[in-house]
Specification:
alpha+beta; eight-stranded mixed beta sheet; about 35% helix
C-alpha cells in the first residue's frame, strides 16, 4: 500500500490549486500547480494524506464545493510564494505564471458552463421521448431507463454515458444512429466519457462531440453572438450598463462577450467578441491595461502580459473571413480601460432571457 511518507511529491512546492471535472468518475478532482524550477510549472492531480499514513485523491462531488476549497487554499499559497527568499525578478515571473494558469482554468470552465446553459435553454421546449418508445440495440436494453432519464434533461443528445452500478463506475457509451436506434454498449474509458460530457454542449448546438473541441467551441461562440445581442434589450442589463457608464466604464468583459460603448454617431452599447493573438493565447490578462481602438473591428484582443513581464495593449480587429475592419479617423481613435466581470454574470444573464 502506498504511504504518504514515501511519496517524493510531499516535498514539492505547490503554487496553486484548481479543480477539474473527470466525467468517468463524475467527480471534481483537485489539481495542483507545481514549481519546476527553471522549467514551466505543471499541473498534476492533487493527493492528500489520509489515515494511517495513507494517500487519498483530493476530490469533490460538486463544482461549488471544489471551487470553494481552491479559493480557500490559494491565498495561503500566494502568501507562501511572496515570502520565498528568491530573486525578485524570478518571483514576479513565477507569480505571473501562476495567475495565467489559474485564469486559463477559470475562463475555460466559465465558458463551458455558459455554453451548457444555452444548450439547455435552446431545447427547453423540445418533446421529451417516452422511455418505452426508445429504440435500442438488444444489448442496450438494460440501459433504457438510464438513457430516458438523461434524454428527459437533454433530448438533443446523440451520445450518452450510462450504466453506473451501485458505487462502481462501470459506464458504457451509447450512440444514436441515423436510423434513430441507439447502439450496442461500448466500454467508456477516459476519452469516451469526455466525449459524452462534451456532447451535452456540442449536440445542443447541432455539432459533433468528437470533433476538435477548440474548433467546436469557436463555432459555438459565433452562434452565441446574436443571443448576446438580445441581452441589450433586457431592462436589467440596460440598468447594469447605465451604472457602468456612470462609473466611466465603457468596455465590460465576461465569458468571451464584450459590452462595448461607442460614443461617436450615437451608437451606444453594442456587443463584440473577445479574441487573441498567437502571443496572447492563454496569457495573463492585464486588468489595469487599456484597449486602443483604431478601427471598428468586431473582435477585441484584451491587454495581456507576456511571461517576461512585458505589457501589451489591447486592440480591435476583424476575424479572418470578415475583410478589413473599417478604420476610424485618427481624431476618433479611442483608448479605453476595461472591466472584467465574473463568468457567472454572463451565465445568469443568458438564463434570464425568456425562451423565444
Amino acid at each position: 500500500m502506498l504511504k504518504w511518507s514515501e511519496l517524493k511529491r510531499a516535498s514539492d512546492v505547490v503554487l496553486a490549486v484548481w479543480p477539474h471535472y473527470r466525467p468517468l468518475f463524475e467527480r471534481w478532482m483537485m489539481q495542483e500547480l507545481i514549481d519546476k524550477g527553471e522549467l514551466a510549472p505543471i499541473w498534476r492531480e492533487r493527493m492528500v494524506p489520509g489515515e494511517n499514513d495513507g494517500v487519498l485523491s483530493d476530490h469533490y462531488s460538486d463544482r461549488e464545493t471544489a471551487i470553494a476549497a481552491a479559493n480557500a487554499l490559494n491565498p495561503t499559497l500566494q502568501q507562501a510564494l511572496a515570502a520565498r527568499a528568491i530573486d525578485p525578478v524570478i518571483k514576479r515571473s513565477l507569480a505571473l505564471k501562476v495567475e495565467k494558469a489559474l485564469q486559463v482554468k477559470q475562463r475555460l470552465q466559465d465558458e463551458e458552463a455558459l455554453m451548457l446553459a444555452e444548450a439547455l435553454r435552446r431545447h427547453a421546449d423540445d418533446e421529451r421521448p417516452d422511455a418505452a418508445a426508445l429504440k435500442l440495440a438488444p444489448d442496450s436494453e438494460r440501459y433504457r431507463q438510464d438513457l430516458a432519464e438523461q434524454l428527459a434533461k437533454m433530448p438533443y443528445l446523440k451520445v450518452a454515458k450510462v450504466g453506473r452500478s451501485g458505487n462502481r463506475w462501470r459506464y458504457v457509451l451509447l450512440y444514436l444512429g441515423p436510423d434513430g436506434v441507439w447502439s450496442k454498449p461500448y466500454p467508456a474509458g477516459e476519452k469516451g466519457a469526455q466525449t459524452a460530457e462534451r456532447a451535452k454542449i456540442a449536440n445542443g448546438f447541432g455539432l459533433s462531440a468528437s470533433s476538435h473541441w477548440g474548433k467546436t467551441k469557436a463555432k459555438i461562440r459565433q452562434i452565441l453572438l446574436p443571443r448576446a445581442n438580445q441581452l441589450l434589450q433586457l431592462a436589467s442589463v440596460q440598468r447594469m450598463l447605465a451604472e457602468a457608464l456612470a462609473r466611466g466604464e465603457r468596455v465590460l468583459v465576461s465569458n468571451g462577450i464584450v459590452f462595448w460603448y461607442e460614443a461617436d454617431g450615437g451608437v451606444g452599447w453594442q456587443v463584440k467578441e473577445t479574441s487573441s493573438t498567437l502571443d496572447s493565447e492563454g496569457t495573463t490578462i492585464w486588468k489595469e491595461g487599456t484597449i486602443v481602438s483604431t478601427n471598428h473591428g468586431r473582435l477585441v484582443v484584451l491587454p495581456y502580459i507576456k511571461e517576461n513581464g512585458e505589457h501589451i495593449r489591447g486592440h480591435t480587429k476583424n476575424g479572418p473571413n470578415d475583410g478589413r475592419a473599417l478604420p476610424r479617423h485618427p481624431d476618433h481613435y479611442v483608448e479605453i480601460p476595461f472591466h472584467l466581470y465574473d463568468g457567472d454574470l454572463m451565465i445568469g444573464l443568458f438564463g434570464e432571457l425568456p425562451y423565444e
